[in-house]
Amino acid sequence: MQNGAETNDAKGRAVDDMSRFIEGMPKAELHLHIEGTLEPELKFALAERNGVSLPAKTVEAMRTAYDFHDLPSFLSVYYEGMSVLISEDDFFDLTYAYLVKAQSQNVRYAEMFFDPQAHTSRGVSFDTVIRGIHRAQDLGRVELGIETQLIMCFLRDMSAGSASEALAQSLPYREWIVGVGLDSDEKGNPPVKFIDVFAEARREGFRLTMHCDVDQDDSVDHIWQCLDDVGVERIDHGVNSLEDDRLVDELRTRGVALTVCPISNSYVTEGTKASAIKEMLDRGMKVTINSDDPAYFPGYVTENLIVAQREGGLTRDDLIRLSRNALEAAWISDDQRRPYLDELASYSTRF
Ligand code: ADE
Ligand code: ZN
């Protein structure tokens, strides 16, 4: 399929055949920080509800300030934004707003990261955070037909001891969390710093993933540590693996999925890395496309797929492969997976 003739959508935007195919495709999202879905409008509403003052005074001024050039410049704005998240209802509203948006993009299943230490460190309890998110997940399942699971991320620029405390705090909610991840500033914070807490998490039955952000210092070495020292099942980002042929072979042989985020890439480094995504597909790697922090790197999963398709020259089969990779890498049982795969297969033959 070519990109094809353009027509206009309800908002008057030009839409081509490929974009329509992407919009309608059933999707799974595996790399989404729930705190990164806090849109400026909701940020202002929660600030008002909680009597919090924000540096920007208008939505436009806030969006203009989202002018990131690397990971740390994004992270400082991302953590500052969390100051408006205080009550259980705030976390509910944040999560439900994302679920409504995801459903509108035909996301059937999502695994959502949350950062408990970013909240407990400012006096908001673990219980408040997780109860608000969980309540929205329950309602999303019933009202929106969207299935979700939670992944708890440790902040890698905090200590391993702090991560252990977060793990201990999570245990009363063990059934509500499918896995653990590692995010925040990678510089000087390699995977092996958290080897013990990840080993403990595995003993508790959590699934394991870690960020290896794009174009960071020692990225290739960090990806090797994830595989050989920590034993993760997925890597979040991991684009720099292409620099090492042996690493590519290892990821492919072990079937380790990479959750790549094109629009996010363009804000923390040079470009979306769409041609790297195409190369990963062509080399048989289990690559997926995701939105990361869509309120800050503007674009949800559909927009990320569209930009990757246009810039990487992805075919219709590539797009189906990306969606199938995400479903195959999802932390669900094969019985749960089958109907999603069947729906995708029938979409692919019908379109
Ligand atoms: N926290 C939220 N988004 C992140 C990202 N893309 N990398 C590292 N930490 C994050
Ligand atoms: Zn991320």
Task: Give a description of the structure.
With 351 residues, the protein is of the alpha/beta class. It has one domain (21-350): TIM Barrel. The protein has 16 helices and 10 strands. The protein has helices at residues 17-24, 40-50, 59-65, 71-81, 88-104, 116-120, 126-144, 160-170, 195-203, 219-230, 245-254, 262-268, 274-282, 301-312, 316-329, 334-350; strands at residues 7-8, 14-15, 27-33, 107-114, 147-155, 179-183, 207-212, 234-237, 257-260, 286-289. The chain starts with 6 loop residues before the first strand and ends with a helix. The structure holds adenine and zinc ion. Adenine (ADE) binds at residues 33, 36, 71, 78, 183-184, 211, 213, 264, 292-293.
Helix-strand layout with pairing:
Elements: E1 7-8, E2 14-15, H1 17-24, E3 27-33, H2 40-50, H3 59-65, H4 71-81, H5 88-104, E4 107-114, H6 116-120, H7 126-144, E5 147-155, H8 160-170, E6 179-183, H9 195-203, E7 207-212, H10 219-230, E8 234-237, H11 245-254, E9 257-260, H12 262-268, H13 274-282, E10 286-289, H14 301-312, H15 316-329, H16 334-350
Helix pairs in contact: 1-14, 5-7, 13-14, 15-16
Adenine binds at residues 33, 36, 71, 78, 183-184, 211, 213, 264, 292-293.
Strand content range: 5-15%
Helix content: 40-55%
Number of separate strands: 10
- What ions, cofactors and ligands are bound? adenine, zinc ion
Number of self-contained structural domains: 1
Biggest beta-sheet profile: 8 strands, parallel
Q: CATH homologous superfamily, by name?
A: Metal-dependent hydrolases
In terms of per-residue confidence, which ranges show pLDDT below 50 for 5 or more consecutive residues?
Answer: none
State the distance separating the first and last CA atoms: 11 Å
CATH architecture tag: Alpha-Beta Barrel
Radius of gyration: 19 Å
Largest sheet strand order: 3-4-5-6-7-8-9-10
